[in-house]
Amino acid sequence: MSEILFYLGAVMIIIGGICDLFGAIGLLRFPNFYVRLHAATVGTIGGAVVPLFGVALLALGADFLPHRYAIAGASFITGIIILLAAPAGATALAYAAHKARLVEWKPKVDHLAEVRGND
Predict the structure, then answer these.
(1) How far apart are the first and last CA of the chain?
(2) Are the beta carbons of 50 and 12 closer than 8 angstroms?
């Protein structure tokens, strides 16, 4: 069982590295602020949360590690905190940029237009 946890954790760490790479490419290649913000959030969730869960599984599968339960618990709790904070932060940034009209954007549909009218 420990070998399965070890290899599953290693695969999750590799997946996190790939998500970080795609998030960095998206930050460079995407055309505007909102889509780049999406790429940054994908890089954060996929590139930080998934590897942290992988580290937790890897630590649980490593019998030779002295404080493996503490490492697994800290990695898991940190991943949960990032999983909750990153989308909320990205949403707050996007809403603030839209409300302040800092980003030039020509939408076809603007669902926040009625919110802007009530300011």
Answers:
(1) 57
(2) yes
- Can you tell me which residue has the tokens 């590897």? 51
Looking at residue 31, the DSSP 8-state letter turns out to be S
Instruction: Give the separation between CA 10 and CA 7, rounded to whole angstroms.
Output: 5
Other Cβ atoms closer than 10 A to 59: 22
Written as one letter, the residue type at 91 is: T
Which residues have a Cβ under 8 Å from the Cβ of 73 and sit 6 or more positions away?
A: 56
Residue 57's SS3 state is: helix
The per-residue b/e assignment along 40-53, b for 16 or more CB within 10 angstroms, e otherwise, is bbbbbbbbbbbbbb
Q: Tell me the H-state helices in the chain.
A: 2-29, 33-44, 50-61, 68-100, 113-117
Lowest mean pLDDT among 35-44, 77-86, 95-104: 95-104
Predicted TM-score of the model (pTM): 0.79
